[in-house]
Every structure is written in C-alpha cells, then in structure tokens.
Design a protein that fits this description.
α3 runs parallel beside α4. Helix content is 27%, strand content 17%. It is built from five helices and seven strands. With 230 residues, the chain is of the alpha/beta class. It folds into two domains: 136 residues, 3-Layer(aba) Sandwich (Trna Endonuclease, Chain: A, domain 1), CATH 3.40.1350; 69 residues, no CATH class.
Length: 230
C-alpha cells in the first residue's frame, strides 16, 4: 500500500517522476526503498538496466537537518543522486544570486516549482542531469563510488538469485552479509551493477511501476540517459 504523504510532497514527487520518465524512458520507477538494509529510505529510485538514480524530496513542509546523511547514503548506491527541493530552501549569494543550500552538497539539485531564476544553473527552470552544464567532469564525483554497496539494497532471496546466476553453489544457508561478500568477490563492478538493477527491476513492490523482466531473449533498448554520464 502506498505510504501516506502530504499534498506538498506529492506535488514535487509527481513532477520528479514525470521528469525521470522523460529522461529515462526505459527505467522502472520505485518509491520508498531502503538504501542500506533497513537504514535510510530513498524517496524515489529510477532503475535502468545498468543505471540507478536516487532522489530525495524536500517539500516546503520539510527540514534539511537529515539531508546530508541521506545524500551520503544515496551516493553509495546510485550513479546519480538528486535532491529535489522546494524553492524556499534556496540561499541568496551576494555574487551569484540564488544557490542551493549547503546541506545539498554532493547531490544534483532540482528546484520546485520550476521557474526562471537568477543564480546557479541548478536553480533555474531546467532540471539538469550530469554533463548538461560545465562538462561531464563537473559531476564526476557523483558516479557510483563503490558498486559493491548497491547489494545492500537487496533482499536475501535476491542475493541468492545473483549468486546462483553467477554459478556460485551451496548458498542457501548463508547469511546476507556472507552472500554479499561472495558477490563482491566473484563479480566485477559492472556485473554487480547489472545484477542489482535486474533484481530491483523485477522486485514486487508496494508502490512502483510493474516489474520489468529483461531476460526475454531480446536485447533491451539502451537508456538514452547513459550518454549524459560522460
């Protein structure tokens, strides 16, 4: 059952999902996902076949006191971390006009409502992705820093599924941390990323797009968002 949320948050969430569908048409949208096995909860995930985008939403009724920790958690499991903030959180700089708050450092900022503003490129009407201003190197630190952390989003049966697909046997009695260690040891970073994406795209969720099964013989279409990562 979808979680209760205020009208203020729903407005931003709806706009965020619409934009994610535009730039990542092949991705599955999932709401309310734990980042580190029952730790920080991510508001919205967009999961392509080999890309993960995580979004934290802060409406006009929220506070920013937890945002830095939430961004840190999301950056451990996502290729791109986005803070979708209500405009009331913007700060004014004497030199550059409006800028994002310091608490959003380390994330790409989308400001709601979308409007033309004088200041940093992030605070304007256009919601940007990496590489769309200042060159891809500007957001190089937003890439997936440690692909092995992404496995911490998975459930036990999903970890077992990855192990068995990788040819790792006798895993049914192992603990989750042991399964994760095996995956990190036996699979490359790229293989882990694709495996995690596959499990998330197929997972049954309380609030998400219908499951997507990519292993149907045909090559899934490439995500146009990939080109924006440099």
């Amino acid at each position: 059952m979808p979680a209760y949320r205020s009208d203020a948050e729903t407005q931003i969430r709806t706009a965020v999902v619409e934009e994610l569908r535009r730039v990542m048409p092949c991705a599955r949208i999932i709401h309310e996902v734990n980042a580190f096995s029952f730790g920080n909860r991510i508001d919205v995930l967009a999961v392509a076949t080999d890309r993960i985008v995580a979004v934290e939403i802060k409406s006009e009724r929220d506070k920013l006191d937890r945002l830095e920790r939430q961004i840190e958690a999301m950056r451990g499991i996502a290729h791109v971390t986005i803070a979708a903030l209500h405009q009331r959180f913007l700060r004014r700089s004497h030199l550059d006009g409006l800028t994002a708050p310091d608490e959003a450092r380390g994330a790409l900022v989308w400001v709601y409502p979308r409007a033309t503003r004088h200041g940093h490129p992030e605070v304007g009407q256009r919601w940007l992705m990496p590489g769309q201003w200042g060159g891809a190197a500007t957001h190089r630190d937003m890439r997936l820093r440690d692909g092995s952390k992404a496995v911490t989003m998975l459930w036990r049966d999903e970890l077992i599924s990855i192990c068995r697909r990788a040819g790792i046997e006798r895993v049914s009695a192992l603990r989750m941390d042991e399964l994760a260690d095996l995956i990190r040891w036996r699979l490359t970073g790229a293989e882990i990323t694709r495996a995690v994406c596959r499990e998330l795209r197929q997972r049954r969720c309380a609030e998400a797009d219908p499951p997507i099964f990519d292993d149907c013989g045909a090559e899934p279409p490439r995500d146009p968002f990939e080109g924006l990562l440099g």
